[in-house]
Amino acid sequence: MTDTLSHIDLTEAEIARLPAGIRRKVEAAFAPSEKANGAWRLVGAPTGRLAALLDLVLERLGPLATSHAAALQEKNIDRLLEILAEDLPRAEVESALDLDNAALRAEYLAETPVLTGAEVREKSGLRPANRSEPASRWKREGKLFGIRKGGIDLYPAFQFADGEPNPAIRKILDTLPRDMSPWQTALWFASGNGWLDGKAPQECLAQVEDVVQAARRLSDPAIG
């Protein structure tokens, strides 16, 4: 048996015909000020492991969507679901760590403008035959970094100035620990940093030396 979810949609009329005990459970899932209406889907999981994973997805998806309700439209919520589905491992999931990482990546992509290699090419004004150039070349040269989503390289837009890599990015990347993954690098740039008065490094590129010092701190040995 494969770990595949089965599901059916329920109309309001079908919900009304459910046994009283099940209807009470539906109503109990809502706050007193809310109504048990809208779209409903009955989902079945063939294994306890998959059921537990589904619980984790639903637990994290609601707050994630709500926290960005002002910025997220329905297509963005669909994108979150797509990203979560792509990033969840196909093999056995032993903990919630993979799901947490997927949720962080979904949140990052919902908030941070990114460019494909073709979009970088268009903005650069250069016309190499390979549409992944010059972005892939700049990445190889350490002038910028890219992250992967669905097998495609994406380049956070804050790295560019007038269609070219901001020189500050290379200085910072040269300072960050060599073992940081591209996604770890992206999340570091986007996260508040105590060495930058709580600002994210990507917001402080005009003060590149301050960001370089913050990057250098990652390599300092822990004390205590």
Low-pLDDT segments = 70-74, 90-95
Query: What share of the residues does DSSP label as strand, in percent?
Result: 5-15%
Helix content bin: 40-55%
What structural class do helix, strand and pairing data support?
Answer: mainly alpha
- General shape: elongated
Strand order of the largest sheet: 3-5-4
Number of extended strands: 7
Count of DSSP H/I helices: 10
State the separation between the terminal residues, measured CA to CA. Answer: 50 Å
Average residue-wise pLDDT: 78
**Biggest sheet, in brief?**
3 strands, antiparallel
Q: What pattern of helices and strands is seen along the backbone?
A: EHHEHHHEHHEEEEHHH
Counted up, domains total 3
Work out the radius of gyration: 22 Å
Task: Describe the protein in words.
- By secondary structure, this protein is mostly helical.
- It has 3 domains: 1-46, no CATH class; 47-111; 114-217, no CATH class.
- It has 10 helices and 7 strands.
- It has helices at 12-16, 20-28, 48-67, 74-87, 97-111, 117-124, 135-140, 167-175, 182-190, 208-217, and strands at residues 6-10, 40-44, 114-116, 147-149, 152-156, 160-161, 164-165.
- The strands form 3 sheets. Strands 3-5-4 form a 3-stranded antiparallel beta sheet.
- Helix 4 packs antiparallel against helix 5 (97-111).
- The radius of gyration is 22 Å and the shape is elongated.
- The protein starts with 5 loop residues before the first strand and ends in a 7-residue tail after the last helix.
- This is DUF2384 domain-containing protein.
- It comes from Roseibium aggregatum.
